[in-house]
């Protein structure tokens, strides 16, 4: 009895599962089904076409790879056969070898110079620099005495020979070469030269620093304009203590204003106002204390010869 009741229910469920088209009129059901089938055919045709195109592309790529691999293998085989001497030529291998060139001697020399020009340039520069340094060392005169001029006075620099000649008149032969030679080191120290900027000012500052670090010049001729760039109280000895009876001694200065210094030296140049001589304190820097003291003693001797000759200008 229960089985009979279930049978009708199963039939009803099957009827409910039928496409919705059954509820439509017959004409509409046929048109809908035709459209659906036509769209499915088009999609299927496009899918088949795309698959065929992909297959053709893959096949072409595969054939190209196979052809390239085959050509490479043939080239390798021909190359091996060429190396082994089995064959003398091959269409698979292209020879780019050129006939050997024969150069003349001058062409070889020119080619070598062309390829080595950078190294030759460096070598020539180093050689010239070394030759200059050697020449300068051999020919350079080592003066017996140097005076450092810090006053900005181009005329004084141009007339340096007068001061040097005057110093040579009583300078001992300190370097024992049988000749007496004095030299003047000129560094224009003033606001105009030290603050103007550029390479010149940098060079002057460097020269000033080096001079006060070495024992080259212990006797200094300066003026008031240079003091701004010095530390005179810490650099120079007291002239009043060295020469208490000299009327021109004033602290660390041995004043030259109003004296006969230009007459003694035979200078044509006019001295700047407030010029004076000063003597550096011997302090160990670039040179040892012994070397600084020796240079100081020599400068002190020269100053001892100058002070008695100073007189008021007439």
Explain the overall architecture.
- By secondary structure, this protein is α/β, with parallel strands linked by helices.
- 54% of the residues lie in helices and 7% in strands.
- The protein contains twelve helices and six strands.
- The chain has helices spanning 2-16, 26-84, 105-115, 117-139, 154-158, 160-168, 191-194, 198-211, 232-235, 239-242, 261-265, 289-306, and strands at 145-149, 182-186, 219-222, 249-250, 253-255, 276-279.
- The chain has a six-stranded mixed β-sheet with strand order 2-1-3-6-5-4.
- The radius of gyration is 53 Å and the shape is elongated.
- The model is unreliable at 1-21 (pLDDT under 50).
List keywords for this structure.
alpha/beta, disordered N terminus, single chain, 54% helix, 6 strands, 314 residues, six-stranded mixed sheet
Identify the strand order in the major beta sheet: 2-1-3-6-5-4
The SSE string, one letter per element, is HHHHEHHEHHEHHEEHEH
Number of helices: 12
Strand content: 5-15%
- What is the 3D shape? elongated
Cα distance, first to last residue? 164 Å
Set out the fold topology.
Layout (H helix, E strand, L loop, with lengths): L1 H15 L9 H59 L20 H11 L1 H23 L5 E5 L4 H5 L1 H9 L13 E5 L4 H4 L3 H14 L7 E4 L9 H4 L3 H4 L6 E2 L2 E3 L5 H5 L10 E4 L9 H18 L8
Parallel strand pairs: 1-2, 1-3
Antiparallel strand pairs: 3-6, 4-5, 5-6
Explain briefly what this protein structure is:
The chain is built from twelve helices and six strands. It is of the alpha/beta class.
